[in-house]
């Protein structure tokens, strides 16, 4: 190595490192002959002098003079330059010396604040296209040295390294890069993996006893306030500890994003290990019941992958969302977004009790409420089209079809948008009504559910009737209208808890049976809800019928159902066909099951 370098005209420096004239020229051209370049050269001379001296005291003097007159040193290296000017001014006004990397230093200079380039600490230019800027003992020694250990302080002093008291870093925007509409190449994504930033964040977080680390521009104001407050006390240490916690979490989220992207690029099947980046959106008053504490977290990977839905909703009005509100609103909006036609879905306890699809959204709403007004009272109303003033007035004034007098009460209305007038009218309904605006929920995506000691992961059930083959198993063929109704009932049943049965007609849910541990009970409940309207209706079952005679299929046929759809696949499928033929009922199979547990 030495010989090869010598052949290129290199010599060994006093620090024992090879100094190449080519590199030296490069440094000068990068940094310039004056200003930072001469500082850089002076520093190297001081470092050399300190190291060649056998007396540590000399080095201590060098270190002290580097920090003379300053309250301490702050290192700033940020990709997101939001409020950087305010931060830098604030720190400088308090007497902190600021050291910074390329783009951050330029921005700070532009704000009229004195700043040193990090090269002055490292004695090296930024290199390898920015892959190496701060990865150097001049930086990491300054961050990691324990101020309470004289041997640590002597060790850094010996190498002319000065302590760094504040580290302000935020990382290359990896997630934004890989989720951008214009997909970056693999190489561009890799270059956006930050290495030096996390190294500094982790170092500063580890040494929180002495160093403050800030990774989020929203923490600049609290930082300046803290620094302007009392000198070292318990509150100051608590602040640094909290910053350290946030810093480690920031790195963990960052790394999980990189790992997930990399698995997506090279892995097959379920990732052998994964972490979910969750961000606290709000603490909730309580969970499913008042004695259970609860909180709501957003999953940044889902939100930024454009999953939309409740997690990405804006609340325009009403009381704070509760735990159950989130669950029910998600069920209602996920169902509504599954329909192509203008649709209203009303949900109670995560099950749709009213669904209607019509060209006119107003009519869809009226029909959805009428499907089961008793259950709709206190429910969640979801639309897959914008809510205008007429719709808002209808929601506000609608009387319960049960007694014709009581105004309907709802917990939540959720829609993709509202006209300004629609929103104002709806706000007049009740202070209790939560009004949510949410981007449509994407039909696919990852779903995670917790079980004791583990998590279940699956792909969301994104199959819609258009992608399913409906095969007629009976002698009687469906009319075009019946086929439409069967597809509608099929889409409804997908959103009902198993064992799920839906009865529908003319784009309107007439009855549903949900969550029963046996299918025949769900059939009976759905038929009972449909009442007289069952004659000529259609029935959908989320899974095959295990029994027919005196059971699900025959009961439905006898009640007057005109057409039935189920996945098929039972050993007794032939019974269902025979029964439908006997009663002159249409029977379709799909080969697709829609269990929902
Ligand atoms: N390579 C390094 O030594 C290094 N040190 C700091 N960074 C990152 O560089 C960014 C700031 O760069 P600039 O100040 O040039 O805009 C920050 O996001 C910081 O996390 C680095 N970049 C990547 O690893």
From TrEMBL:
CDD domains: IMPCH. GO terms for biological process: 'de novo' IMP biosynthetic process. HAMAP family: PurH. It catalyses: (6R)-10-formyltetrahydrofolate + 5-amino-1-(5-phospho-beta-D-ribosyl)imidazole-4-carboxamide = 5-formamido-1-(5-phospho-D-ribosyl)imidazole-4-carboxamide + (6S)-5,6,7,8-tetrahydrofolate; IMP + H2O = 5-formamido-1-(5-phospho-D-ribosyl)imidazole-4-carboxamide. This is MGS-like domain-containing protein. PANTHER family: BIFUNCTIONAL PURINE BIOSYNTHESIS PROTEIN ATIC (PTHR11692:SF0), BIFUNCTIONAL PURINE BIOSYNTHESIS PROTEIN PURH (PTHR11692). Keywords: Hydrolase, Multifunctional enzyme, Purine biosynthesis, Transferase. GO terms for cellular component: cytosol. Residues 66-215 form the MGS-like domain. It comes from the Eukaryota.
């Amino acid at each position: 190595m030495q010989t090869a370098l010598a052949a290129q005209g290199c010599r060994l420096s006093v620090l024992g490192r090879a100094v190449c004239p080519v590199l030296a020229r490069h440094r000068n051209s990068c940094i310039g002959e004056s200003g930072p370049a001469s500082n850089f050269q002076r520093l190297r001379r001081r470092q050399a002098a300190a190291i060649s001296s056998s007396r540590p005291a000399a080095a201590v003097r060098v270190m002290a003079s580097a920090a003379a007159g300053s309250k301490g040193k702050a290192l700033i290296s940020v990709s997101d330059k939001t409020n950087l000017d305010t931060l830098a001014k604030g720190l400088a006004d308090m007497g902190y010396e600021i050291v910074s990397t390329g783009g951050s230093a330029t921005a700070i200079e532009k704000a009229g604040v004195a700043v040193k380039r990090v090269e002055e600490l490292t004695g090296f230019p930024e290199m390898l296209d920015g892959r190496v800027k701060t990865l150097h003992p001049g930086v990491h020694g300054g961050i990691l040295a324990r101020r309470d250990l004289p041997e640590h302080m002597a060790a850094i002093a010996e190498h002319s390294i000065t302590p760094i008291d504040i580290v302000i870093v935020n990382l290359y925007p990896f997630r934004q890069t890989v989720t951008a509409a214009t997909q970056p190449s693999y190489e561009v994504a890799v270059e956006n993996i930050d290495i030096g930033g996390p190294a500094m964040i982790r170092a500063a977080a580890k040494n929180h006893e002495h160093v403050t680390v800030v990774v989020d521009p929203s923490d600049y104001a609290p930082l300046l306030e803290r620094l302007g407050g009392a000198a070292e006390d318990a509150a100051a240490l608590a602040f640094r500890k909290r910053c350290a916690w946030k810093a480690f979490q920031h790195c963990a989220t960052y790394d999980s994003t990189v790992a997930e992207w990399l698995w997506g690029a090279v892995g097959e099947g379920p990732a052998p290990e994964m972490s979910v980046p969750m961000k606290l959106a709000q603490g909730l008053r309580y969970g499913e019941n008042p004695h259970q504490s609860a909180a709501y977290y957003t999953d940044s990977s889902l939100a930024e992958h454009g999953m939309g839905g409740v997690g990405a909703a804006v609340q325009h009005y009403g009381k704070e969302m509760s735990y159950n509100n989130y669950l029910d609103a998600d069920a209602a909006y996920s169902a509504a977004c599954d329909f192509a036609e203008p649709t209203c879905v009303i949900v109670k306890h995560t099950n749709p009790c009213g669904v209607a699809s019509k060209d006119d959204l107003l009519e869809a709403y009226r029909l959805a409420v009428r499907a089961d007004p008793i259950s709709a009272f206190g429910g969640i109303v979801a639309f897959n089209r914008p809510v205008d003033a007429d719709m808002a007035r209808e929601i506000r004034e609608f009387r319960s079809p049960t007694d014709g007098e009581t105004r309907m009460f709802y917990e939540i209305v959720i829609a993709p948008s509202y006209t300004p007038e629609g929103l104002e009218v709806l706000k007049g309904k009740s202070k209790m009504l939560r009004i949510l605006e949410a981007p449509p929920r994407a039909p696919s995506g990852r779903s995670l559910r917790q079980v004791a000691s583990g998590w279940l992961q699956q792909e969301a059930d994104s199959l819609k009737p258009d992608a399913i083959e409906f095969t007629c198993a009976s002698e009687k063929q469906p009319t075009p209208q019946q086929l439409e109704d069967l597809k509608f009932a099929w889409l409804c049943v997908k959103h009902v808890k198993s064992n799920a049965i839906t009865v529908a007609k003319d784009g309107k849910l007439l009855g549903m049976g949900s969550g029963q541990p046996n299918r025949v009970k769900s059939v009976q409940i759905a038929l009972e809800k449909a009442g007289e309207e069952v004659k000529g209706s259609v029935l959908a079952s989320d899974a095959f019928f295990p029994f027919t005679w005196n059971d699900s299929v025959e009961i439905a046929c006898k009640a007057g159902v005109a057409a039935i759809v189920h996945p098929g696949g039972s050993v007794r499928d032939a019974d269902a066909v025979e029964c439908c033929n006997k009663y002159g009922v249409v029977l379709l199979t799909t080969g697709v099951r829609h269990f929902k547990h």
